[in-house]
Design brief:
Structural class: mainly alpha
Number of helices: 19
Shape: elongated
Largest sheet: none
Order of helices and strands: HHHHHHHHHHHHHHHHHHH
Distance between the termini: 109 Å
Radius of gyration: 36 Å
């Protein structure tokens, strides 16, 4: 009698399992027939029961349903929902049943389903990225990466998702998720994907997020990894200039000029460093070299004019301290000659930037000094018009 009772209980238990899992099978059939509402009702029931809520196939079918709902305009979040279901299905399949049996039993089914699903997920992310919906794109690309890292692919030795790692970082950056952007750009750099672009994008992340302590190490690493990418070297030099790390900047500028002796911006930058250090002789040489390479370069044109003008002003102060008239005249003429030397640079600077107030004021003073009143009146009128 007891044996019959136990058999009866076992039969009832098996029947209950099949009944609940039968809802999952029914949901799959409804999906095939296009009745998504009925499929969702069956799955909602299946998720409520212990016999089916932790069955891998329940999540595979739920993923199929979410994918079909996405295709029929159910919203882009449905494709992320599907990705989550596939991930859960794979996790449960690795756990097996309550006794740890049947591990990997659903692996083939999950892999086949993912083969059809992954293009949907990838395309959804790409479409969102192109539509500037960067937060969704980030989540979609990250889901691609996570699904490809599932243990069921361990034996397949899949290559790293370099493209999606890079674009997850880019989407994260554009949605101002700085920590995630940093994480994925670092992975991309380790994989040598994106090369200098990844370094510069990570520089942008550190700049925008205010994580300044990481800026120099990132750029230095970038220069070591990609020494032919002039953008990295230029960015590094500019950062040193902006933060007044003059010795560091000068060292990298020497390297930059050796690598690219016809780059006018490098000579200008080195001229600025010499200028700041009051090494005016070498500053003039570098500014003139920059102008030889680029005659319409405003900044070195102005700086060269200012250096010469200031030298003339110093000479004039020396002259003003002399009480002997003849000696005073000698020094005054020297100062005037130097002021006149600065004039063509300031005039050219004015041609390049007609509205620059500093240039206009300097020119007005020079024209007044040399009694060039017609030109003085023109410049004076321009200044008054700008006030």
């Amino acid at each position: 009698m007891k044996r019959v009772l136990f058999l009866l209980i076992a039969m009832i238990a098996i029947s209950a399992v099949h009944a609940q899992r039968g809802r999952v099978t029914a949901a799959s059939a409804f999906i095939d027939n296009g009745d998504l509402k009925a499929a969702r009702q069956r799955l909602e029931d299946a998720f409520q029961h212990d016999k089916s809520k932790d069955w891998p196939r329940t999540y595979v079918v739920a993923a199929r349903l979410a994918t079909e709902e996405y295709k029929k305009g159910g919203g882009q979040d449905k494709v992320l929902e599907a990705a989550g279901h596939y991930k859960r299905a794979a996790e449960l399949d690795q756990q097996g049943d309550a006794r740890g049996r049947n591990v990997g039993r659903s692996e083939k089914e999950i892999k086949v389903a993912l083969t059809f699903f992954m293009p949907e997920l990838q395309n959804a992310g790409i479409e969102a990225f192109n539509n500037e919906d960067y937060t969704f794109a980030m989540n979609a690309f990250e889901s691609v990466i996570n699904l490809n890292k599932l243990p069921l692919y361990a034996k397949d030795n899949l290559p790293a998702d370099s493209v999606f790692i890079y674009y997850t970082g880019l989407a994260a950056s554009r949605s101002q998720n700085w920590k995630k952007a940093e994480n994925y750009f670092l992975k991309a750099i380790d994989l040598r994907y994106g090369e200098g672009d990844a370094i510069l994008l990570l520089h942008e992340v550190y700049t925008e997020s205010g994580d300044s302590a990481k800026i120099t190490p990132n750029l230095k690493r970038g220069y070591e990894l990609f020494p032919q990418d002039d953008r990295i070297l230029t960015t590094l030099i500019n950062f040193f200039l902006q933060t007044q790390q003059n010795e560091e900047a000068l060292a990298y500028l020497e390297t930059a000029i050796n690598n690219d002796p016809n780059n006018y911006s490098f000579y200008y930058a080195r001229g600025v460093l010499h200028d700041w250090s009051k090494d005016y002789e070498n500053a003039e040489k570098d500014y003139k070299k920059a102008l030889d390479l680029k005659p319409d370069y405003f900044e070195p044109m102005l700086n060269l004019g200012v250096i010469i003008y200031n030298r003339a002003a110093d000479q004039m102060r020396v002259a003003n301290d002399i009480t002997d008239f003849r000696k005073f005249e000698v020094e005054r003429k020297k100062a005037d000659a130097t002021f006149r030397e600065s004039l063509p640079y300031m005039e050219k600077a004015h041609e390049l930037r007609p509205e620059d107030v500093m240039v206009l004021e300097t020119l007005r003073g020079l024209y007044y000094r040399f009694e060039m009143m017609d030109k003085y009146d023109v410049i004076d009128a321009k200044l008054k018009a700008l006030q």
